[in-house]
Amino acid sequence: MPSPTPIRPATGRLGVLTPGLGAVATTFMAGVESIRRGHSRPIGSLTQMATIRLGKRTEKRSPLIKEFVPLASLDDIVFGAWDPIPDDALTAARTAGVLDERDLARVADFLSAIRPMPAVFDNRYVTRLNGPNVKKGNTKRILAEQLRQDIRDFKAANKLDRVVVVWCASTETYIVPGEVHQTLKAFEAAMESNDDAVAPSMLYAWAALMEDAPFCNGAPNLAVDIPALQELALARGVPISGKDFKTGQTWLKTVIAPGIKARMLGLAGWYSTNILGNRDGEVLDDPASFKTKEASKLSVLHTILQPELYPELYKDFSHVVRINYYPPRGDNKEGWDNIDIVGWMNYPMQIKVNFLCRDSILAAPLVLDLALFSDLAQRAGMKGIQEWLSFYYKSPMTAAGLQPEHDLFIQQTKLKNTLRHLMGEEQITHLGLEYYP
Ligand SMILES: NC(=O)c1ccc[n+]([C@@H]2O[C@H](COP(=O)([O-])OP(=O)(O)OC[C@H]3O[C@@H](n4cnc5c(N)ncnc54)[C@H](O)[C@@H]3O)[C@@H](O)[C@H]2O)c1
Questions:
Q1: Is the pLDDT of residue 7 over 70?
Q2: How many Cα neighbours within 13 Å face the side chain of 55?
Q3: Protein residue whose Cα sits closest to atom 17 of ligand 1
Q4: Residue 163: which H helix or E strand, with range?
Q5: Which is the most buried residue in 3, 7, 75, 415, by most CB within 10 A?
Q6: Which domains does the chain have, with CATH numbers?
Q7: Does the C-beta of 360 come closer than 6 Å to ligand 1?
Q8: What are 353-412's pLDDT values in tens digits?
Q9: Does the beta carbon of 279 sit less than 6 angstroms from any atom of ligand 1?
């Protein structure tokens, strides 16, 4: 039996800070409070609902994950946020239009007390937005220092033991990693000189790491996914993860594509289109923000299907992703997928998927799990990129030179095996050795 990793207990309170107090963040906060008050169940959350099999099947040991690993309890979570729009969480939730009034009424007092701190915001990185609740400072370094102060003040005011930061703000315009992102030294110099390559999300990530708070990136912009900040995470012993919550269409893609490949069926093309009417849809209507999202959504199929190993089946498939801003649909995105597959003797077949999903309803439990697992990772001394959290992301961060793993079921196995490893349990290989001589 492997020995368990020493893990600091989850005593005291855990702060969860979100840059962004929009649809995802308010749905997450309202949901956690609704669960705490006994009005809802944590559907969609592994940390709250999933079990984990331990040992041999015959042992019949399958505890809840939250009873197996020492996670912070929902009762110990305190929320805070930054947003350029000054609305409190209740007003922001109403604007987002995800939850109905009956559900909001049950937590209205709680939500209205959550007011966003002034954001580090620059409209050049999110062109469709503007808001007055914004920090002022002559350099990006000064702005980032103000974020650090916010984290310290939030911690002190709420008597918190630990803080986790989860990026739930808008998708920023596309930035190609360059020189200033390569080392911490170059990055910090670029903060001083107000280099355009330093986006607000990177300042939040830098501030979080400097305050020893794990940083999770729910959007596809780079934020913590640059070598400079990975260097900082390792130096300070802080876990980081990203990018881009894996919710609607891409989640299904990473379920269906492994199934096609498992049966050695070919793929001629995959066309995905969406209509989306929330503020996220509006931001993504800007080609520069969409480019960031598109890159994230396009990457999954190649790594799952491995055309380099199976050129006959997957060499030249066509993959198209579209998002169209259509206000009447609100947060209830509708996605269509047309998948052209190829079978025995080259006969073509088609799969059509019409997914009427609710974006923030799918994303909220991921925010909760990421916050709790990142806090666990930190207490267990895990630092830098947390690949075992790839399960939650469309474009999982990996160490330099490694291919990310996109297959949802491999990601799930990796997540659960990491938990088993932490607690000194055997990894599960699904190989029933007792049947073999
Ligand atoms: N909902 C999903 O299923 C899903 C899936 C994957 C990724 N995401 C990403 O999550 C993010 C949040 O989505 P949403 O639907 O809540 O969007 P939203 O537009 O409702 O909320 C985003 C909020 O971020 C704020 N913001 C923008 N720049 C900021 C900054 N620099 N600092 C602080 N706040 C800032 C905006 O004012 C807005 O209130 C988006 O980037 C989206 O692409 C969402």
A1: yes
A2: 7
A3: 280
A4: strand 160-167
A5: 415
A6: 13-245+360-422 (3.40.50.720), 250-356 (3.30.360.10)
A7: yes
A8: 999 999 899 999 999 999 999 999 999 999 999 999 999 999 999 988 888 989 999 999
A9: yes
